[in-house]
Amino acid sequence: MSAGKFETLLQDEPVFWDVEQRPSRQSEREAVLPVDRARVLVCDPIPAVAIERMRAGGLGVDEKDGLSPEALETLIGGYDAVVVRSATRLGARQIAAARRLRVIVRAGVGTDNIDLAAAASRDIAVLNTPKASTGSVAELALGLFLALARRIPQADAAVKSGRWPKKAFSDGIELAGKTLGIIGVGRIGGTLGRCASALGMAVVGADKAAEPVGRFEGLELLSLEELLARADLVSLHTPPSEEGRAVIGWEEFARMKEGVLLVNCARGGLVDEEALLAALESGKVRGAALDVFAGEPPRDLRLARHPHVICTPHLGASTREAQARIGVEIAQILLEQL
Ligand SMILES: O=C(O)[C@H](O)COP(=O)(O)O
């Protein structure tokens, strides 16, 4: 075979294609599968098992990670279903261009990256997997509190840089005996609360619902103002407000105790980032751990680089277990819906 030529394995007789002319694996499959099968566009990484199950069920699946909004708008018209995680935004323009779209699957919990009104106006179903990542997000929040309490990432970085600053890190705190305030006592907030309770913490919660789904024995429900005044640690587990208003801003920081620890594994817009920076500078907030940012990835790195801030790149649902559950669920949803 000469350079720049390939032999296709789909033919009995060897056929040679110029590199430019050779069909992709995808179009090779299209040539042998029925043309009227439903087509699914997967925009963010999902487990291979989900893709395999969908294909085995007869769906045509294209994986296109990292599409620009313009590229998505151009492509989306050819699909019956779209799968997204949090990175891909499905706005009004993309939905308007989605001529044959019937289903949007959010492989995860938050649907704030999808224009729900635009989807509803076109009768496009929007489905998510609200339970699959509960434990993973709750465990990350707990891990971040433990890391903040003893400044584990900072101590690790110091030792790795050849230093041994035992004294500088000798003012850690124990979680047992402290009060954790959970804003949004849903599945995740409730799971975190039960774990915290098992560690000997008192747990208070604030929720819009009188009987929140994550309520558990021992949880004391308070108003947000009361919670902020009582909590030594504050964790956010609420969806973003429709107006995009921060739940924790200047006023809320002012109501908090001195030296509070803050964890946000929910959505970046829930915390006013300028107000948090000021609260870290003044010492009102002793440490903050952020898995989410107002813009992801954040362009302004002042918060991420603050010595009392620990960051992770939106990893709440990124465990093998959560993603495996999500994968099975989305394949099931699409095979039922299409
Ligand atoms: O809403 C969610 O499910 C979480 O924020 C996780 O988002 P991801 O699927 O983009 O990791």
UniProtKB/TrEMBL annotation:
GO MF terms listed in the record are: (S)-2-hydroxyglutarate dehydrogenase activity; NAD binding; phosphoglycerate dehydrogenase activity
* A Pfam short name: 2-Hacid_dh
Annotated D-isomer specific 2-hydroxyacid dehydrogenase catalytic domain ranges read 40-334
Keyword hit for Oxidoreductase = yes
| Superkingdom as given in the UniProt entry | Bacteria
Supply the source organism's classification.
Answer: Bacteria, Pseudomonadati, Pseudomonadota, Betaproteobacteria, Neisseriales
Protein name from the UniProt record: D-3-phosphoglycerate dehydrogenase
List, alphabetically, the InterPro entries matched.
D-isomer_2_OHA_DH_cat_dom, D-isomer_DH_CS, D-isomer_DH_NAD-bd, NAD(P)-bd_dom_sf
Q: Does the keyword Chaperone apply?
A: no
